[in-house]
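Q: For a teaching session next week I want to show students how multiple molecules come together into a single three-dimensional assembly. I've collected the sequence lines for a complex. Could you give me the predicted structure tokens for the whole thing so I can convert them for display?
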Amino acid sequence: MEESGVIKKFLYVNRRAPYGSIYALESLEVVLIGAAFEQDVSLAFIDDGVYQLKKNQATDGIGMKNFSPTYNALGDYDISKIYVDKDSLEERGLTLDDLMNLTWEDENDNYAKKPSISLVNSEELAALMEQQDVVLSF
Amino acid sequence: MEESGVIKKFLYVNRRAPYGSIYALESLEVVLIGAAFEQDVSLAFIDDGVYQLKKNQATDGIGMKNFSPTYNALGDYDISKIYVDKDSLEERGLTLDDLMNLTWEDENDNYAKKPSISLVNSEELAALMEQQDVVLSF
Amino acid sequence: MKLGIMVSEGPYQHQASDSAYNFTKAALEKGHEIFRVFFYHDGVNNATRLTVPPQDDRNVVNRWSELSKQYDLDLVVCIAAAQRRGLLDENEAKRNGKDANNIAEGFRISGLGQLIEAGIQAERLVVFGD
Amino acid sequence: MKLGIMVSEGPYQHQASDSAYNFTKAALEKGHEIFRVFFYHDGVNNATRLTVPPQDDRNVVNRWSELSKQYDLDLVVCIAAAQRRGLLDENEAKRNGKDANNIAEGFRISGLGQLIEAGIQAERLVVFGD
Amino acid sequence: MTLHTVNKSPFEANSLETCLRLARSGHSVLLFEDGVYAASKGTKFEAMLIKAMQNCKVHVLLPDFEARGMKTENLIAGVNTVDYAGFVDLVTESERVQSWL
Amino acid sequence: MTLHTVNKSPFEANSLETCLRLARSGHSVLLFEDGVYAASKGTKFEAMLIKAMQNCKVHVLLPDFEARGMKTENLIAGVNTVDYAGFVDLVTESERVQSWL
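A: Of course. Below is the structure for the complete assembly, covering every listed component.
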């Protein structure tokens, strides 16, 4: 934990598919390190970025590390605001059921497990973006 | 000049705009080196690749080397078969007049200067590609 | 105003590093403060002193080093991204049993926290990438 | 059959080098001959011995070196692309007044003519890039 | 016969579209890396791919498809699956390989 | 107000399209690097850009536009030109910068 006295709204924007390039993985690494700074963190998955959250990733055949289980750890880092662009999901023929079931525990509600992913439409996503102090794009 | 005894049909396929990435420049470097091997060389410019041949490139403002004059030298290296995809050009609102006037000298016709660029439609381009032995993509 | 910069691509392959340099230089010349330039992803490759670009082309690495010297600019290379890609300073080389290092003058290797800190401390953060 | 391979992107940032490796290995295991693997553009960065990837990830550079050893594979790094990006062997470092080199075992630096030659000599040439 | 390889998602880049415009009847198209998304059912590019399959044989590199969380049941009907050895066979059986980067 | 930056050609990538879908009225969009092609007259994206200009202010980095062989006369009417110093001003005048890579 680092103390800075300032709490800013950070948005991580993910628009690339996993494995084809490293942006998804290295974005996740920033998010995990950034969690120690206790900022107000949101993640947005747009365009091919929604594929990062796809269930059942199995990378044995390509010899790369399957890093998708790490998304499950986000809740433990108090990262619970994960926004998925509804239009992007639909264009890809996917629904919420195709994505990993990411959750966080609400300490104000007896540590109840709650879903972290929210589906948002363009208007909601645009509004969310406009509330941010820092937008990091990957 | 190198002797290999074999003459193959080489096609260099260029689909990227110049300056935004180095592929255009480094493709040209291969073409120039390759010329010494006396193979049967063709160049195709498709999609944003057609922008490589745009007239009036002026790179002083971005601090990068303007390598577009080098295309003019292709004729001196006996590279005279330059195919530009008509569909790509039209989608971009460009005509042959917007491109550099690349020429070669026909030694069988009293060294007459002849245009190197041919506009080709999809069917012609597909047929051309099918005649190749080696296709290098940039 | 206090600005932060992130560079996500290496030298030459993409224009990102050129754009980031031109932007950073213009900001400094206008009197703005650059809190930090953070090199991430292939951006870490901007920090190698082993490049030998053609004589008639710009020297991307030296330009950053010189700007750093002139303006006391903080050029930070992400350690995790650098290790993946083979960009090391003397300490890192020793620590990892490597027989050489390749970092250029004016760059320093540090953690991802430095990017978050740039996000917190700078008033605007601009990302240059592919 | 005699095959040639061109790799246009560096390790880790894009899957190109992984795909090229998996393809090359499969071809060799099927008994085909790989005339040459030519590293161009950022692909030259596959040839640095200074990478230190995380323990739980693949080592892209070492994999190439080992495949080269096992099958006597010709791994050629384009000299012009390598100079731009800071990839040098001992000779190149000396020639350019650099105090270090970073090339990995099994790779050699040579000219673009080697790519053309691969196109001429190999029966099929496959390009892996971004 | 030409083997065309496409490694980009059709959502992100125009490579597949140009490839299909210039591939000739009887050619093969291999989708790999992020290109495999074009082979999955229900995307907005499904109709484009099905149309292409009237003229071309479409293959997908299964290891890349599975890495991205998809199984053979998610494949558009008629798409052939290959592993890396099958990729090699496609290359040697074709007269040339054209990479649409 | 957000400054959106787009550095990809609209022909090659979908960045501009997504940017324009998510930019709000009153925002600024800066086209630079290969993104500048979207600012040139007569392309198939001209209508899309003109429509976007009803809500957003569109800027183009002139050094990048000129590098690619185009002049101010090739610009779609209403597009503002900036140099790197102007790019810096756009950043400092905006509340945040969102890069559409």
